[in-house]
Amino acid sequence: MQYSIIQKSQLEGALRLDAEYYQPEYLELVDKLNEFRKFKIGEISDIVYGTTPTGGIFEENGVPFVRSQNFSLLNIDENIVYCSESFHKQNKKSKVESGDILFAVVGATIGQLAIVQDKIKEANINQNIAGVKIKDKRFSPHFVGIFFASRFGQFQIERLVTGNAQFYLNTEQIKNFVIPLLKNELQDKTARIFKKSQKELENSKTLYHQAEELLLEELGLKDFEPKEDLAYVVNFSDAESADRIDAEYFQPRYEKLVEAIKKNRSKTIKELSEVVGHPSNPSYSTDADQKNKTYILTQKHLAEFSPKDNFWQDEDSLFTTEEFLEKNKEYMLKNEDLVLYSVGAYIGKTNIYNINVPAIIGSFLTLIRPRKDLINPYYFMVFMNSFIGRFLTRRNQKGLAQQYIYPYDIRKQIVPILPKSTQQKIADLVHQSHAARQKAKQLLEEAKQKVEDLIEK
């Protein structure tokens, strides 16, 4: 049994009386920080919150608009949307720039952070993010960001939200987070490690883009621009055959793209796959001590190129029952399966499952199990994520308020089959991209460990 005895004078102004707030591990970390000269975030920075454009409508181009789902390895990934220049000007108060620190402040993402990269000159944020702008020159913004990603920063966030019905961080709470003042050279050491991590992450993105470029060049579609026709005529027999009557589906630009792809050898996803589908909503196990857990992979667990490789360590991860697995064996994830977003903002985005953790897909995801004798899974993934693959996938989406794509529509989509040697070159670039991303992650962990060691020792 663990317990701690708290003096009345230690009750933080009697604002918190719950025992969780005074757990021994929290008090131990507080004592460590008390050995330093420390400052509150409110003393060294300005804090801003954002908002979302009316109706949640974004632009194809414009000013980068960051949401908490864009946070990746303390950076902002490339799956961002854009807001208009006029919206950005109307909301200058929530403008963020290179070096600003972004905190996720709502729900399950609380505790996640990003540091705005140098290449993002100016952006805006939504209401689920707090932007922290460091004003005090004694603090390196990169050091501050790494500190709050380390356990000394995370415990402050965790401690604050524990026991609250609604997980939310407001301005006053963030202002009261504390950070120790370390010598500039010590802050710079951690910042340098983090910048190396950023370089590896950029290298990872460059390698992946090279894979996409090679794909498009080999297909002869690098400069393809699917222009929208304002008017066109469709035969009733075509509508009947497709079982669709919505005008968007019959846009000539889709058929032009299909014809361009068919200049190469091509097959449908059904022909290239052993399985294309998803189980019914998984049954959740409540037995926290279940041996050989099988996790439920959800949309939140999918990272930029593959599932997050530590999703099973997520305390909010769910696992399913043996009974459910018995009925849905075919949907148990295998190495190099593809997982496709079936609904929402990332509809059509595809990831590859390349980790050895027992898992099954959850709702709103579709499993595609490639036939490796016909197609390289990594090449398959690059095609599905290319603008051509996503464009064709979007053609098949249905629904009004919530867009969705069904497995039987996915099965009909065509995929070009390039020579195996070309597929392997594309796959090799993806492998190199993965390796660079792993290196970035290792360096980030090294930077966090450096901060923790400086405080511990």
Describe this structure in words.
- This protein has 457 residues and is an alpha+beta fold.
- The protein has helices spanning 24-33, 41-44, 85-90, 141-149, 151-161, 171-175, 184-219, 236-242, 252-261, 269-272, 322-327, 377-385, 387-395, 407-410, 420-456; strands at residues 38-40, 45-49, 63-66, 71-72, 75-76, 81-83, 101-104, 113-115, 124-125, 129-134, 178-180, 266-268, 273-277, 295-297, 337-341, 350-353, 359-361, 365-370, 414-416.
- Strands 2-10-7-8 form a four-stranded antiparallel sheet. The chain has a four-stranded antiparallel sheet with strand order 13-18-15-16.
- The protein is globular and about 65 Å long.
The chain-level mean pLDDT equals 83
Give the end-to-end Cα distance, rounded to a whole number of Å.
28 Å
The residue ranges in which pLDDT falls below 50 over 5 or more consecutive positions are: none
Helix/sheet category:
alpha+beta
Q: What is the CATH domain class of the largest domain?
A: Alpha Beta
Total strands: the figure is 19
Please indicate the count of domains: 2
* Overall geometric form: globular
Percent helix:
25-40%
Side-by-side strand order of the widest sheet? 2-10-7-8
* CATH-assigned fold name of the largest domain: Adenine-n6-DNA-methyltransferase TaqI, Chain A, domain 2
Continuous helix count: 15
Assess the beta-strand content as a share of residues. 15-25%
Q: Major β-sheet, in short?
A: 4 strands, antiparallel
Radius of gyration: 25 Å
Q: Could you give me the name of the CATH homologous superfamily of the largest domain?
A: DNA methylase specificity domains
Named CATH architecture of the largest domain: Alpha-Beta Complex
